[in-house]
């Protein structure tokens, strides 16, 4: 089993979501002074069925790679937004309507937001992943 840092876990979750056709997947680095977890991954599901499939895919993928399960899952019976808490990474999967309404990427001014939809993920390590995404990084500020 590979050792996962907080960032590699966040990147792995982004890869899982991307591979399962989540839209507008964003990796958000949260500043430590906020007192929250270091990373948040936000993705858009096309509909309720896709949302719950993505939830299951993230849980299964992380469990296979790290043997970890989320500390908490909120919204499991919801139709528009679910949250998985891995301690160091919060994962928000929501419909386009909820994503537009709450605009999670814009809550804090001092965050770094990296959209990963157009990156190639095939068996890349963290550095290769970041290099492959270099042209796709869009800061939202």
Task: Describe what this molecule looks like in 3D.
This protein has helices at residues 6-19, 48-66, 96-102, 126-132; strands at residues 23-29, 39-45, 72-74, 81-85, 89-95, 112-115. With 141 residues, the chain is an alpha+beta fold. A hairpin with a 3-residue loop joins β4 and β5 (89-95). α1 packs across α2.
List the helices and strands and how they pair.
Elements: H1 6-19, E1 23-29, E2 39-45, H2 48-66, E3 72-74, E4 81-85, E5 89-95, H3 96-102, E6 112-115, H4 126-132
Parallel strand pairs: 2-5
Antiparallel strand pairs: 1-2, 1-6, 3-4, 4-5
Radius of gyration: 14 Å
Largest sheet descriptor: 6 strands, mixed
**How far is the N terminus from the C terminus?**
37 Å
Order of strands across the biggest sheet? 3-4-5-2-1-6
SSE series: HEEHEEEHEH
**What kind of assembly state do the chains in view correspond to?**
single chain
The helix content is 25-40%
Strand content: 15-25%
- Find the count of extended strands (DSSP E, 2+ residues): 6
Unreliable residue stretches: 120-141
What is the general shape?
A: globular
Number of DSSP helical runs: 4
Overall structural class, as computed from helix and strand content, comes to alpha+beta
Averaged pLDDT: 83
Give a summary of the structure in a few sentences.
This protein has 141 residues and is an alpha+beta fold. The chain is 33% helix and 23% strand.
Keywords:
six-stranded mixed sheet, alpha+beta, single chain, 141 residues, globular
